[in-house]
Structures are given as structure tokens and as C-alpha cells.
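Exercise 3.2. Students should predict the tertiary structure of the chain below and write it as C-alpha cells, then compare their answer with the key that follows.

Predict this chain's 3D structure.
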Amino acid sequence: MYRLLKAGLAYESAVADRDAEIQQVQKKWATKIDKPAETISTLEAEIEQFYRLNGEKLAPAGQKSVQLTNGSIGLRAPTNPGLIPLNEKWTWEKITATLKRVWKKRYLHEPKPPGPDKVKLKKELTPAQLAKVGLKLDDTPNFFLELNRLALADDRSDEAAA
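Answer key:
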């Protein structure tokens, strides 16, 4: 027991020393990391806003994205859209009551407390049927931005050669 106690204390001491060093390193690098991270966040938001306002002009007809020199940007439809209330007047309690009234227990989880079985609802009901019970599919396209890191690598290799 004594050896176990000593080993446990040695372990905790080593972990504490390591954590203290990690904290010092994180503190040292925080400003160097935080500033570019903030810039990234700001630029991504600006690019998304620009694309949402001008995407139809930028993307070729029928496409939801555009390929640029340094990457591609666009909109992607979710592969598995979520179910959300149709509008503010529909609460989940009201939706559950309506589902129960219209389809009995067919779309309610069992044996859990009654709640909508969203997977079954999405699979079996049409958008019109979902709307009648206060639901709709949230298939709003998500903005994406993919950087072409190889383009920058090529530029750097050209600079190194010069």
C-alpha cells in the first residue's frame, strides 16, 4: 500500500508539473494564436456574407459553388435535414398532440414518454403532411469554404527557387 501511495503521489506530482508547463506554453503562445484565429473568423464571415449576397452572379448556372484560385466556396444542402417547427406558433408539445390526434401512436416513440419519432416522420411523410402537423424539413444550405493549400505551397516553392 505504501508503494502504491508513493507511486500515486509521484504520478499526480508529475501531471501537475506537466500541466503547469503546458499552461505556461499556452500563455506564451496565446496572443500569437488568438490574433490569426480572430482574423480567420472575421474573414470567413465576410466571405460567407459576400457569397450569400453575390453567389448567383459568381457560380456557374445551376451550380451552388464556385472554384477560385485559392479554394472553393458555396452552399451545400444538408444530407440529413432536421425537423423543425413550421413557425413560432407550433411548439413541440402542440406538434406531439397533433401527431397523436392525426396518427395515434404511429409517429411517437415507445416506450419512452410520447415524443415525435423524427426519423420515421422524415422518412414517411411528405412536406405537405409535415406542415399539417406543424413541422418542416430544415434543408437550408450550409455555407462551406475549402482552401486550396496546394496553391499556396506552389507559390512558396517558387519564392524559394528565386
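Discussion points: The chain has a mean pLDDT of 88. The two ends are 67 Å apart (CA to CA).
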